UniProtKB/TrEMBL annotation:
Residue span(s) of domain C2H2-type: 225-255
The keyword Membrane is assigned to this record: no
Lineage, broadest ranks: Eukaryota, Metazoa, Chordata, Craniata, Vertebrata
Gene name of the encoded protein: SLC2A4RG
SMART domains linked to this entry: c-clamp, ZnF_C2H2
Segments traversing the membrane: none
Keywords from the named record: DNA-binding, Metal-binding, Nucleus, Transcription, Transcription regulation, Zinc, Zinc-finger
Stretches the record annotates as Disordered: 1-85
UniProt protein name: SLC2A4 regulator
Record bears the keyword Transcription: yes
Subcellular location: Nucleus
Record-linked InterPro entries: CR1/CR2-DNA-binding_regulator (IPR052253), Znf_C2H2_type (IPR013087)
Amino acid sequence: MTDEAAFQAGARLVGRGAGGGAQPELGPTTPLSKRGSDLGGTRRALSGPASRRDEAPRLPLEGPGSIAVAGTRPATPPQGPAVNDGFSDLKLALPRTPRASDPWGAGSWVGVAPGPQSAHIPVPTQRGPTGRERLDEVMAAAALTSLSTSPLLLGVPAAVFSSEPGPEPWQALGRLPGSYGGDWDLASCPSTPSTPSPPLPLEAAHFLFGEPAPRKRKNSAQVMFQCLWKSCGKVLSSASGMQRHIRVVHLGRQAEPEQSDGEEDFYYTELDIGLDALADGLSSLTPVSPTASVPPAFPCLELPEPSAPPPLLSPVGQVCPIHSGRAYQGRPDHVHLEPQGPAASACFPPALPSKLSVNPRKPRGDAKKCRKVYGTERRELWCVACRWKKACQRFLD
DNA sequence: AATGCCGGGTT
DNA sequence: AACCCGGCATT
C-alpha cells in the first residue's frame, strides 16, 4: 500500500467532507503536490505571517516617527493632569533649540525623558565625587554613541521602559521592531506576551543601553542591591555597601571610595523588594533565573568567556561578538538589533545567565508539531510549513 | 533515531 | 511564490 492510499484513507477517516460528498477532495489520480495545495488552501493564511517572520531585519525601516509609542504619544493626551502639566512645564522651561538634524524628530525624546542629557542617566547620589565624574564621562560617551547609532534601540525601548504613565509598555512592545507588521495578531505571535505582563525586567533593559541599572525612583518599596558578579549574587541593602563589596571582593581594590572610578556600578543592580518580591519570595534574591522571566529577546548578551577570569572590562568600547549570520526567524527576531557602540557594552554585565545568549539557532520549542500530532502517515494534515520542512505554523511554540 | 526546521534548490 | 529536500541541531 502506498503512502498515497494511506493519505487518502487517513483523510477520509478524519471526515472532512463538507464540500459536497460526490467529489472527494482527494482523487486517486491527484498528484501529491496538488493535493498538498488543496489541503493547504484553508490554512493558507497561516503562511502569511510565516513569510513575515522571515523579514525581521526590516525593523529599522519602521523609523522612529512611525513607531507606535513615539508616534502616538503626541496624539494621546497624557492621562493625568499632573503629568500633562509636568510635560508642558518642562517643555517650556527647557532651552530647547530645535535642531534640524535631530534624528528623532521634534520632541520625541522630550516626551520620553524630559530634560537635558543627564535626565536620561540617573546617577546615584551617594556616589563619591571622583567616581561620579568618571561615571559621567562613561555615561556621556555611551549616550552620545547611542544617539548616533540606532534609533531602534533608543527610541523605542526608552519609551517602552519609561516609567511614566502612558500607553501600556507591553502593548508598545507588541509593536516593537521584530513584532512584524501592525496587522499581525498578537495572540499568534509567540514572541509577544498576550497577557499584559511587563515584558522585561528593567535591569535587562538597561543592559541594552550598557548602563548600570539606573537607580529607580522608589516610593515605598524597599530597595536592595544585588551583586551581578558571576556566581556571587550577594544582596546588600545599601548601594554604598554594594559598591564596597564589589570594590573589595571582586575588583580587589581599596575599600576607600576615593579609589573608585565608578566601575562597581556596573556590577550590581537594584532589586525591588516590593510587592513583586512578596509574591516571588526569596527566589527573587537569588542570582537571576535564566529561564523564567527573561525572554530570549536580547541581542548580544553573550557573556565573556566563562572560563576567563573576571575581566575588568571597560564599559565602553567592548566589542560584542555578534554573529554575522542571517537573522533567524522566529521568536527572537529582534535578535538582530545589532547593537553597536555603547550597546556593545550590553555584553558587559559579568553575571548574566548564559541562557540569555542568543543561539544562532533557536531552541526547539516544546510544542508538538504537526509531525508529532498527525504522524507521518497523515502528512497531508500537516500545515504547509511542516510539509515543506519549515517552521511549523500551526503549533507555535 | 526521531524530530524540527534552516538554507537553498527546483518548478 | 509554491514546493521540495539535504543536512544540521536538538531531543
